[in-house]
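Quick one, tokens below:
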């Protein structure tokens, strides 16, 4: 066997092993390796962590998972009663925590004029902030051409501009202490072009642009940026999703037999990515990891796969069923 042939065989075997591995794992290979041999979650001990969108779903699961490691928590969302429920749950999970260790800070992330005063309350309570987890956001289900432009504005106000503004305040603080970690819950839709969620998909692509640029700006400054990209997760996200009409919610619920990752598993993987300071982490059940790798590393092949799958089957991969009615 010649040297060139040997190299070709090695490359083929490399990608073959990758493809086989992606059929078995529920995250990207880097994250899977970090879970096995990376830093342990005990590294979170004593950290001050602010989680937005903490009243349900992934945010609630992140709060509960973090609480096990003796962190100081700031929990934000619009629904104060739900935040108090999550706080009680966290205190029950870790008897070492006291009520003073968890600050309930109600916040509508779109009210950017309130961000600085809320940030000041965090510093007043704990004297520090180590990790900001921007988890607030909503998905969307709608046909592209039917979407009112006001919906696009509302999606970007929530999923992009609120996140960017709060993160800027945090980065200004992190600059002073030359240490800090910005985490943003994006989505696999920020990598793939998800049909029937185009306003949402656009907002997540924008998030990647903003925070990948920020990461490159802050190289060597002690500030880390992690983008979390989950696929379908068991939560109330469908019920709360934007539609084509401003002020309307999609109102559909997920079914127990849907092919989704649990919020608890998503939170566990997210914390592993955070502790190991991964730049980006992908999470999702088969075949989403294969499709994501194809989109990033083999875009031309990915486009052909998308044409074969078609928009309706793509939607079934996300929602386990057709959730948006499409006219023939």
């Amino acid at each position: 066997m010649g040297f060139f042939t040997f190299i070709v065989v090695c490359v083929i075997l490399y990608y073959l092993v990758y493809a086989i591995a992606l059929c078995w794992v529920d995250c990207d290979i880097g994250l899977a390796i970090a879970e096995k041999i990376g830093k342990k979650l005990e590294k979170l001990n004593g950290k001050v962590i602010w989680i937005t969108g903490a009243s349900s779903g992934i945010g609630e699961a992140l709060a509960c998972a973090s609480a096990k490691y003796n962190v100081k928590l700031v929990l934000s969302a619009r629904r104060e009663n739900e935040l108090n429920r999550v706080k009680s749950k966290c205190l029950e999970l870790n008897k070492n925590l006291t009520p003073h260790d968890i600050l309930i800070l109600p916040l509508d992330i779109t009210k950017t004029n309130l961000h600085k005063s809320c940030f000041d309350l965090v510093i007043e309570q704990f004297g520090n902030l180590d990790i900001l987890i921007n988890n607030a956001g909503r998905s969307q289900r709608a046909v592209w051409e039917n979407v009112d432009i006001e919906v696009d504005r509302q999606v970007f106000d929530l999923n992009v501009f609120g996140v960017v503004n709060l993160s800027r305040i945090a980065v200004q603080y992190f600059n002073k202490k030359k240490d800090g970690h910005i985490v943003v819950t994006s989505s696999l839709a920020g990598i793939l072009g998800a049909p029937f969620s185009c306003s949402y998909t656009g907002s997540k692509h924008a998030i990647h642009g903003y925070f990948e640029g920020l990461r490159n700006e802050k190289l060597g400054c002690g500030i880390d940026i992690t983008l979390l990209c989950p696929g379908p997760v068991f939560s109330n996200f469908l019920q709360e999703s934007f539609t084509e009409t401003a002020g309307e919610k999609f109102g559909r619920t997920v079914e127990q037999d849907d092919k989704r990752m649990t919020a608890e598993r998503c939170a566990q993987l997210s914390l592993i990515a955070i502790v190991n300071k991964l730049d980006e982490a992908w999470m999702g059940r088969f075949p989403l990891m294969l499709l994501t790798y194809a989109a990033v590393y083999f875009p031309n092949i990915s486009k052909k796969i998308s044409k074969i799958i078609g928009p309706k089957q793509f939607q079934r991969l996300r929602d386990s069923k057709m959730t948006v009615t499409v006219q023939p």
